UniProtKB/TrEMBL annotation:
Sequence intervals crossing the membrane: 29-49
Protein name: Protein FAM198B
A cellular-component GO term for this protein: Golgi apparatus
Cell compartment(s), UniProt: Endomembrane system; Golgi apparatus
Protein family per UniProt: Belongs to the GASK family.
Keyword set, alphabetical order: Golgi apparatus, Membrane, Transmembrane, Transmembrane helix
InterPro entries according to UniProt: FAM198 (IPR029207)
C-alpha cells in the first residue's frame, strides 16, 4: 500500500524527467537558462526588501534615541522647533546645563563641586543705531592716537595732591567698536549660577564683586596719596545710592562708587580675598580681576573696592595706620590688649587694635607668606637678592629687631579695634623649608573657624568653588590646572601650620569680635 502511494506521488516527476531527456539539446539548454534567470530575479528582490526593512528599523531607533534625549512628541515638534520671529530651527533640551568641577587629590574620597547652570530666558533687545556707529575709520584712527597718548600719561605719577581725570567714554567707544563690538554687555564675568552665592560671601560682597567686574567705567584718574605711590582709580556707574563719605575732602578722589586698579603682577589680591572669606576672617576688601583695553596692554588687573573710611584725614595724610615697633607689638601680645573689652592702662603701650586681630593677621599672612606687615625686613626667612627688603637695605636691620617698625597695619577711621588687610602681596614660590615663622612669634591663640576649615580637608573644595566665580582670574591663572597648583601650596602650608599648633600648644578658640 505504501509503495503504490509513493509511486503515485513520484509519477509526475518521473514523467517530466523522461520527457526532458527526450528533448533536443537546444531546447533543454533554453529551459535551464530560463529557470536560472527566474531564480536570480527572485534572489535580488529578496535582498532589496531585507535592506529596506533594515533601514526602516535604523530610522526608528534614531527617532527613539532623539525622542529620549529631548522628549519631543510628533505633534509638538513643529511649533517648538521653529522660532516664530527668526524662522530658525532649534531644539530645547529639557535638562539644564551642568558644570562639574571634579577634585583630583590624594584622598581616598575626592570631593565634587557641582554648579547647575540655569540660563535665564532673555528677550531679544533691539539694537538701535547709536552715535558710536557714526564714527568712520578715520575718526577711529584719531581716537586710537588719543588713547595712546592717554595710556602714556597713565605711566607718569601725579604731583602732590594732584589728580588726573580721564574721560573714559572715548576709551569705551574704541573698546566696543574696534575690539568687542559683538560682546553682550549683560553677560557678567562673575559666575554665580545657583540661587545664591557660597555662604562665606555676604550680600555686600556679591554686590561689590559685580560692580568691580561689570560696572560701566565713567572715568579713570590717577591720584597721589602723600609719600606713598599714587593710586589709579576708576569711577563706575551704579544704580544704587552714592556711598556716604566721612569727609568732604574725599569727593575729588571718588564721587561715587569706585575701584582701585592694581598692577597685573599683584594677582595675589584676588586669591587673598577668596581665602579670607573661606577662612571666615572677613578682613580684606573685595577684589576681582578685570581687563581694561587701554591699560597694561589689556592684561587682567586686580581691582580692589575703594573704601574712603581708610583715609579719614584725606589722601594726603595717607592710610589710617597703627604705629608699632616689633618690641611693642610683642609686649601688646603678652598683655592681651582689649581682651574681654577691658580698657588697658594708659602706660601699658597697647595700641587701639583688639588682641584677637593679631591672631587672624598672623594666620592669614603665614598661609600667603605676606611679610610686608609683621616682617618687612625679612628677618624670619632667607630672602633673595631681588627682594625689596634686600635691595632697600632693610634686611641689615635685623640685628636690632625690637626697633623694627611694623608697616601696613591699617584700620578704618571709625573702627580702630579691627584691622583691614590691604596690599596683600603673597608669595607662592617659597618652599616649606624657607617659611617665615617669625609671623607666628608671640601668637598663643588662633581663630577656631579658620583652623577648622584647615582641618576639615575641604579647603581645596571651597577655594575651587569660590575662585570659579571670577572667570577672568580663573582663566588668567591657567584654568583648573593653574588654580590647583596655587591651592597645593596653601594646603602644604596649612599642614605645616597645624603641626606648629600642636607642637607649641597654641589654643584654638572662638573669636567673635
Amino acid at each position: 500500500m505504501g509503495k503504490s502511494r509513493f509511486h503515485w506521488l513520484c509519477f509526475p516527476f518521473l514523467k517530466l524527467t523522461s520527457s526532458f531527456r527526450r528533448c533536443p539539446l537546444s531546447k533543454s539548454s533554453l529551459i535551464i537558462a530560463s529557470v536560472c534567470v527566474v531564480y536570480l530575479f527572485f534572489v535580488v528582490s529578496q535582498v532589496g526588501y531585507s535592506q529596506q526593512h533594515r533601514d526602516r528599523r535604523t530610522d526608528k531607533d534614531k527617532y527613539r534615541h532623539t525622542r529620549g534625549l529631548y522628549n519631543l512628541d510628533v505633534n509638538d515638534a513643529l511649533p517648538d522647533s521653529v522660532d516664530s520671529q527668526t524662522g530658525a530651527s532649534f531644539v530645547v533640551p529639557t535638562r539644564s546645563n551642568v558644570v562639574y568641577i571634579t577634585l583630583k587629590s590624594k584622598r581616598l574620597k575626592p570631593a565634587n563641586i557641582r554648579g547647575t547652570i540655569r540660563p535665564k530666558l532673555r528677550r531679544k533687545v533691539r539694537r538701535t543705531k547709536s552715535a558710536n556707529s557714526a564714527f568712520t575709520q578715520s575718526k577711529l584712527g584719531t581716537l586710537e592716537q588719543d588713547a595712546g597718548q592717554i595710556k602714556h600719561n597713565f605711566t607718569r605719577k601725579a604731583s602732590w595732591g594732584e589728580t588726573k581725570d580721564v574721560d573714559y567714554k572715548t576709551l569705551d567707544i574704541i573698546h566696543k567698536s574696534h575690539i568687542d563690538a559683538q560682546t553682550n554687555s549683560h553677560v557678567s564675568s562673575i559666575r554665580i549660577y545657583s540661587q545664591r552665592a557660597p555662604p562665606w560671601f555676604s550680600p555686600e560682597d556679591v554686590k561689590a564683586m559685580r560692580f568691580l567686574a561689570d560696572a560701566k567705567v565713567l572715568r579713570v584718574k590717577e591720584v597721589s596719596r602723600g609719600v606713598s605711590s599714587s593710586l589709579l582709580i576708576f569711577e563706575g556707574k551704579t544704580g544704587g545710592p552714592v556711598s556716604d563719605h566721612k569727609s568732604a575732602k574725599l569727593t575729588y578722589a571718588c564721587g561715587g562708587q569706585c575701584g582701585v586698579i592694581n598692577s597685573p603682577v599683584d594677582t595675589t589680591e584676588v586669591f587673598a580675598f577668596h581665602l579670607d572669606r573661606v577662612l571666615g576672617l572677613n578682613r580684606t576688601l573685595p577684589a576681582v580681576s578685570r581687563k581694561f583695553s587701554l591699560l597694561h596692554d589689556g592684561q587682567p588687573c586686580p581691582v580692589v573696592s575703594w573704601d574712603a573710611s581708610l583715609y579719614p584725614e584725606g589722601l594726603a595724610a595717607g592710610l589710617s595706620t597703627v604705629k608699632l615697633t616689633w618690641g611693642k607689638y610683642q609686649s601688646s601680645l603678652k598683655q592681651r590688649c582689649w581682651h574681654k573689652n577691658t580698657s588697658p592702662k594708659p602706660d601699658s603701650g597697647c595700641s587701639t587694635v583688639h588682641h584677637y586681630e593679631w591672631s587672624k593677621l598672623a594666620l592669614f599672612d603665614f598661609l600667603l607668606q605676606i611679610h610686608n606687615r609683621l616682617d618687612q625686613s625679612c628677618c624670619g626667612f632667607r630672602p633673595r637678592q631681588e627682594d625689596a627688603c634686600v635691595e632697600l637695605g632693610h634686611h641689615a636691620e635685623c640685628g636690632d629687631q625690637n626697633q623694627i617698625q611694623l608697616t601696613n597695619i591699617v584700620h578704618r577711621g571709625h573702627d580702630p579695634r579691627h584691622l583691614v588687610f590691604t596690599n596683600n602681596k603673597g608669595f607662592f614660590d617659597r618652599n616649606e623649608d624657607n617659611l617665615d615663622f617669625r609671623l607666628l612669634e608671640g601668637i598663643k591663640e588662633l581663630p577656631e573657624h579658620a583652623v577648622s576649615v584647615l582641618k576639615s580637608r575641604r579647603l581645596r573644595e571651597k577655594l575651587l568653588q569660590s575662585l570659579f566665580l571670577d572667570q577672568i582670574y580663573w582663566e588668567s591663572q591657567g584654568g583648573r590646572q593653574g588654580i590647583d597648583k596655587l591651592i597645593d601650596v596653601i594646603e602644604r602650608r596649612a599642614k605645616v601650620l597645624l603641626t606648629y599648633i600642636n607642637a607649641h600648644g597654641i589654643k584654638v578658640i572662638t573669636m567673635n569680635v
